[in-house]
Specification:
alpha/beta; Transcription Regulator spoIIAA; 4 domains; 5-stranded mixed β-barrel; globular; binds S-adenosyl-L-homocysteine; binds iron/sulfur cluster; binds FE3-S4 cluster
């Protein structure tokens, strides 16, 4: 059967869609690129914020309308895990609901669903990590590899621990094997992913050891990782990033708020001062490092003064970029018991304030790079202008530059001639 998979949410969901595809390919199914021609449509979903969830429900109903009548529609991922059979009421014509730990069952589920039976498979707590999944049998230049799953942190606003379960790490050997296979298939960069990636642990060996082991894969040029929780980013990891050539100088270190009180209610287990001290150690240990972050505004009880602590932290830190969100209540989380008392219009205004602030800082940081040079892994023609090539610097910034299409897949050094908020503009590429 031809299967069409649509993916929402984080890099872990992108990775899981590849897992789903490989489990189905192993069972003899092919992939479709259009929901209209597919026999099976799977939507892999995110429930981190209410709006993401609402949009996906709308999308499922829309897809049901587009699809062939006899085709089956299923939902996978975090919304599936969270809502289970409640989804059957929300989405008419839905044939199956498959949770984040049940993807091995998909071949059977699809067979049953195609025979007209509705299936809900959302058991959890098995510690599934799809470690021995089939494949991969194709790779892009830049790939993700999951190294740990789940989260034990319980930030009070966050649904992820409820839909992804307890933390568990994959064995180092199997991660290294997967990276080597991907490199054999053409990958040159891997991003090691996990909800709290620095708490990776394999028989006493930590994330710094993992970086070392992955760096040993011949032919691999770059290693990235995400996401780092400030409480787990150790000196060993900072040293490893600073000293292992292949590891890129970029740390995504969500701060969430600049107010120590708000951080306390968020259960983030660090203060503003501890966060600032950590970033100082990072900047000393990793020259030229890019720091990026996530921020939530309008958390329950956030006062104007506390919001302004976030603003002042952003001014002080000068993040290279930030993902910024309005607080969204997630049923079942600890914060859901607090009054969601920041009015929506205040949340919107606060978000707007920090988006403007971050845009200005990003532009200034990028402008500061004009005149320097950057190492770029060339991904191919720029989507906006076919005459330019596109890639990323080691620090994760988009770089566009004129050059020969034959450079795709290669590492070049370019001079930065100008910059905007979104990209650096390079000239004179030379192979490095
Ligand atoms: N540690 C995770 C974070 C996943 S969620 C990881 O591996 O990426 C990504 C971001 O979404 C969080 O850092 C937080 O800023 C935001 N977020 C999570 N729950 C939220 C909520 N209830 N409302 C608004 N933003 C939220
Ligand atoms: Fe959610 Fe916090 Fe875990 Fe990230 S570290 S997934 S924000 S509970
Ligand atoms: Fe969303 Fe699930 Fe990732 S809730 S952010 S897709 S772990």
């Amino acid at each position: 059967m031809k299967v069409y998979i649509e993916t929402y949410g984080c890099q872990m969901n992108e990775y899981d869609s590849r897992v789903i595809a490989s489990i189905l390919a192993n069972d003899g199914h092919g992939m479709a690129h259009d929901a209209r021609t597919a026999d099976v449509v799977v939507v892999n979903t995110c429930s981190v914020r209410e709006r993401a969830e609402a949009r996906v429900l709308g999308r499922l109903r829309h897809l049901r309308g587009l699809m062939k009548k006899e085709a089956v529609l299923g939902i996978a991922g975090c919304v599936a895990q969270r809502l289970g059979d409640r989804l059957l009421r929300e989405v008419p014509g839905l044939s199956f609901v498959v949770g984040t730990e049940q993807y091995w069952k998909l071949p059977d589920i699809i067979e049953s669903a195609s025979a007209g039976r509705i299936v809900v498979a959302v058991d959890a707590g098995t510690g599934e990590s799809y470690d021995d999944r089939p494949g991969p049998d194709e790779a892009s230049l830049c790939e993700f590899v999951s190294v740990m799953r789940g989260c034990n942190n319980h930030c009070s606003y966050c649904i992820v621990p409820y839909v992804r379960g307890r933390e568990r790490s994959r064995p180092t050997s199997s991660i290294v094997d997967e990276v080597a296979k991907l490199v054999g298939l053409g990958a040159r960069e891997v991003t090691l992913i996990g909800q709290s990636v620095n708490s990776f642990s394999d028989e006493g060996r930590g994330f710094a050891d993992l970086l070392d082991a992955v760096a040993g894969v011949a032919g691999l040029q770059r290693i990235r990782f995400a996401t780092s929780h400030p409480k787990d980013l150790s000196i060993e990891v900072i040293d490893a990033v600073g000293s292992i050539d292949k590891v890129c100088e970029h740390i995504h270190l969500p701060v969430q708020s600049g107010s120590t009180e708000v951080l306390g209610t968020m259960n983030r287990s660090y203060t503003r001062e501890q966060y600032v001290a950590l970033t100082q150690r990072i900047r000393e240990g990793i020259p030229g490092v890019a720091l990026t972050t996530d921020i939530i505004v309008g958390f329950p009880g956030e006062t104007d003064a506390q919001f302004h602590e976030t603003v002042s932290l952003m001014n002080e830190m000068r993040f290279d970029s930030a993902f910024m969100f309005r607080y969204s209540v997630r049923e079942g989380t600890r914060a859901a018991e607090l009054a969601d008392d920041v009015p929506e219009e205040v949340k919107v205004a606060r978000l707007q304030t920090i988006i403007c602030l971050q845009q200005r800082v990003t532009s200034e940081m990028n402008a500061g790079l004009v005149g320097s040079s950057a190492e770029v892994l060339v991904e191919g023609p720029s989507r906006k202008n076919e005459e330019l090539l596109f890639g990323r610097s080691r620090t994760g910034k988009v770089v566009v530059f004129p050059g020969d299409g034959g450079l795709a897949g290669r590492v070049v050094r370019v001079e930065i001639a100008s910059a905007s908020t979104w990209a650096l503009h390079g000239v004179n590429p030379v192979l490095s």
